[in-house]
């Protein structure tokens, strides 16, 4: 990888890509394959595939605290990051340092901002669940008059879903559901016996809530495209958050980066914190980026003909807000004034669990990287619940308990020891993932005085759930409870909670697409209305959160935007 | 690479990281004092071990407890896998001060009750007497309170955690399967015969 590294250079690149996570990696691959001289700018350190997965394959006994992260370190540097489900001693080095990444929240609100600032970004840490948006998602805003209409429809994105799925490798069944379009897929993971019977129970008693196997970016039958990149079948180890040397799940490192690098067109600028974009008032174009060195805080610039902002939803918006000029005093490409507004996340505030009687002779093998999935049944206005608009999906799974659930049981001695070595009863857990409505008041802006160590104004958050989201979670908890009860399960528990937004790590919006330049930052190709050679292709561009996990749509939008830009350049229009 | 080397390597990178965060001077103070020098102190090498939170007497009480909870059978038990040392280290580094106090208070109470009943320390008692005392504690019998039982369960869970995340616990007592090679949704339980040691993050 060293041969790709750039520090200071006077070269003008064909394209500058800010951020190397899922979207930055995709942009790099597409531009490099089209013959563009590409600079991938990453604020964090290099992480090399395999070589830098330093915790992979280690047993818990090799950690002094057996993979539990240590208090002192966490309190001082990662008190926010540790709220993420994937944070522990084996993964903490892929999370940001809160001390370096300060932000503020409006009194009475809270937002947990999870950061992963290294080459590959959150593509190393994501939960890898991959679902397409449906036509219902793209038309929901128009139908129930929330936010603005998406400028694209399912048919615009469908070929790009095909395109990214073929390369990334998605494990899924063909479910033929209108609210959850099928993917081009490799074989689905298997369900366990109790899950299959629960699926039958749901089909009988909850016909509008069919259960499918979770779809995920894991290889189960790698194609030639994937094998050529050194990617092989998922081993079901469940070590994904440490990095995967099998390349079995999609990450920048496993997939898009090697594809980009083999073209010879890829250049990488690590440790390059983008302060702002350089806008030329006369040309009405962006001409480059201002960078502060991550380590020594020195300043440099990179020049390029096109800029793709792929710095994550809030990262990209922060850069735009901080890129001011005579023409754009309130942030680059912000003539509409909506930049920073309509921030959304998914709402995970409802869960349910139960014990499944029987199946003592049943077990499974391996640690499955996905689970059961029950798509949203409230996917069009005629199916909305009276108490809320939009809806939620349910994800979960059934497994057998172990010593972890029995460690507080009564007992001593050899019998107790023996009991703990046996698999416990089957248990099922389910959680809701609810849509969040786009609201102008849910927003981020630059703090008027506070800056981070690179001299970049901090983000200030003002974001909270509305009654719509709270009602939805109540309904979700009750519905899951009913599903479990109807199936004959025992010891059922369910709860709606009120954790603040952020922790779904599905933050989207704040630089939305739209047909009307007065109401949106980006056009239907993720191109800034105000600045033709500027594109934002990460979650910032979303007009609504939809119900499903957003990453597959990040990929499809990025690939589509990159090909649009490439075509525009080739035809002399950009 | 040996575990010992890993520990040293971890310690180095940890200190390096902290040097950046806190400034080298503060980091070196931590190393010199009671802060970071102990962060990696749960050594596999028992000769290098130092008490973290507990007193020597409390550690002995804990060791006797751990031995009763998970004894040596045809496989090693909690003592052979140094679970008492692990619990001491874990309490210090992964629990807050309130929880630490709960742990030390119940260890002291166990010892005090033993002294009152037998005229000697808990760890010096006969195993039958120790077991009777802990059984009474687990059942919240006089002189123990519900809070005592809860405190004991916290320590018991930590002993169990220490044991089943040790190499012996994971690889000898449970079905250790670090690279399953894929996922099968249904296999007969009898073909495995015991619980998997796996399940994220294990």
TrEMBL record, chain A:
Entry annotated with the keyword Protease: no
Pfam families xrefs: GMC_oxred_C (PF05199), GMC_oxred_N (PF00732)
Keywords: FAD, Flavoprotein, Oxidoreductase
Cross-referenced InterPro entries: FAD/NAD-bd_sf, GMC_OxRdtase_N, GMC_OxRtase_C, P2Ox-like
Domain of life: Bacteria
Cofactor: FAD
Residues covered by the Glucose-methanol-choline oxidoreductase N-terminal domain: 26-346
Signal peptide: none
Domain Glucose-methanol-choline oxidoreductase C-terminal stretches: 438-557
Keyword Oxidoreductase tagged: yes
Family statement: Belongs to the GMC oxidoreductase family.
PANTHER family: PYRANOSE 2-OXIDASE
Protein name, UniProt field: GMC family oxidoreductase
Organism: Bowmanella yangjiangensis
TrEMBL record, chain B:
Pfam family, one: Gluconate_2-dh3
Xref: InterPro entries: Gluconate_2DH_su3, TAT_signal
Superkingdom to which the source organism belongs: Bacteria
The protein's name in its UniProt record: Gluconate 2-dehydrogenase subunit 3 family protein
């Amino acid at each position: 990888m060293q041969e790709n590294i750039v520090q200071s250079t006077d070269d003008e690149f064909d394209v500058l890509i800010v951020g190397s996570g899922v979207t930055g990696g995709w942009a790099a691959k597409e531009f490099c394959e089209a013959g563009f001289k590409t600079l991938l700018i990453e604020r964090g350190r290099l992480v090399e595939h395999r070589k830098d997965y330093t915790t992979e394959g280690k047993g818990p006994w090799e950690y002094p605290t057996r993979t539990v992260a240590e208090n002192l370190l966490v309190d001082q540097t990662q008190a926010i990051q540790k709220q993420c489900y994937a944070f522990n001693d084996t993964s903490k080095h892929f999370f940001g340092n809160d001390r370096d990444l300060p932000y503020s929240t409006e009194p009475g609100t809270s937002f947990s901002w999870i950061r992963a600032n290294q080459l590959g970004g959150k593509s190393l840490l994501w939960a890898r669940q991959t679902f397409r948006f449906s036509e219902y998602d793209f038309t929901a805003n128009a139908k129930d008059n929330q936010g603005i209409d998406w400028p694209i429809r399912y048919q615009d994105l469908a070929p790009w879903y095909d395109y990214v799925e073929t390369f990334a490798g998605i494990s899924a069944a063909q479910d033929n559901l209108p609210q959850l379009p099928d993917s081009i897929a490799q074989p689905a993971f298997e369900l366990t016996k109790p899950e299959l019977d629960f699926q039958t129970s749901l089909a009988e008693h909850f016909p509008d809530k069919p259960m499918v196997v979770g779809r995920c970016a894991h290889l189960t039958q790698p194609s030639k495209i994937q094998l050529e990149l050194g990617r092989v079948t998922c081993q079901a180890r469940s070590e994904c958050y440490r990095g995967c040397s099998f390349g079995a799940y999609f990450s920048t490192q496993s997939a898009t980066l090697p594809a980009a690098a083999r073209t010879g067109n890829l250049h990488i600028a690590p440790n390059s914190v983008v302060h702002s974009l350089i806008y030329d008032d006369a040309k009405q174009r962006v001409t480059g980026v201002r960078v502060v060195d991550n380590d020594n805080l020195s300043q440099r610039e990179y020049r390029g003909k096109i800029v793709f902002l792929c710095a994550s939803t809030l990262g990209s918006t922060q850069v735009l807000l901080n890129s001011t000029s005579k023409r754009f005093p309130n942030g680059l490409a912000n003539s509409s004034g909506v930049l920073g507004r309509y921030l959304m996340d998914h709402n995970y505030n409802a869960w349910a669990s139960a014990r499944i009687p029987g199946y003592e002779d049943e077990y499974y093998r391996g640690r499955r990287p996905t689970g059961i999935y029950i798509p949203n049944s409230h996917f069009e206005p005629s199916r909305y619940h009276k108490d809320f608009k939009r809806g939620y999906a349910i994800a979960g799974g059934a497994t057998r308990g172990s010593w972890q659930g029995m460690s507080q049981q009564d007992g001593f001695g050899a019998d107790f020891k023996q009991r703990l070595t046996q698999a416990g009863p089957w248990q099922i857990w389910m959680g809701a993932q609810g849509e969040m409505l786009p609201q102008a008041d849910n927003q981020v802006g630059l703090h008027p005085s506070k800056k981070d160590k690179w001299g970049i104004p901090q983000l200030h958050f003002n974001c909270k759930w509305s009654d719509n989201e709270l009602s939805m979670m109540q309904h979700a908890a009750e519905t899951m409870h009913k599903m479990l009860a109807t199936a004959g399960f025992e010891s059922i528990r369910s709860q709606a909670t009120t954790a603040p937004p952020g922790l779904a790590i599905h933050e989207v919006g704040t630089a939305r697409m739209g047909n009307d330049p007065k109401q949106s930052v980006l056009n239907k190709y993720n191109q800034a209305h105000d600045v033709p050679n500027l594109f934002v292709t990460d979650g910032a561009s979303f007009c609504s959160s939809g119900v499903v996990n957003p990453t597959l749509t990040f990929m499809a939008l990025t690939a589509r935007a990159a090909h649009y830009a490439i075509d525009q350049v080739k035809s002399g229009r950009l | 690479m040996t575990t010992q080397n890993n520990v040293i390597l971890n310690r180095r990178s940890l200190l390096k990281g902290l040097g950046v965060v806190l400034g080298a001077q503060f980091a070196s103070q931590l190393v010199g004092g009671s802060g970071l020098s102990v962060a990696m102190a749960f050594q596999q090498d028992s000769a290098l071990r130092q008490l973290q939170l507990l007193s020597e007497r409390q550690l002995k009480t804990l060791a006797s407890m751990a031995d009763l909870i998970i004894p040596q059978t045809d496989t090693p038990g909690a003592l052979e896998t140094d679970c008492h040392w692990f619990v001491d280290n874990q309490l210090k580094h992964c629990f807050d001060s309130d929880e630490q106090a709960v742990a030390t208070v119940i260890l002291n109470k166990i010892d005090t009750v033993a002294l009152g009943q037998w005229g000697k320390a808990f760890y010096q008692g006969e195993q039958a007497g120790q077991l009777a005392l802990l059984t009474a504690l687990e059942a919240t019998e006089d002189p123990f309170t519900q809070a005592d039982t809860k405190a004991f369960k916290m320590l018991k869970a930590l002993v169990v955690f220490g044991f089943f995340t040790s190499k012996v616990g994971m690889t000898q007592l449970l079905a250790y399967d670090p690279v399953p090679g894929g996922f099968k949704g249904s296999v007969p339980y009898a073909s495995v015969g015991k619980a998997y040691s796996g399940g994220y993050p294990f």
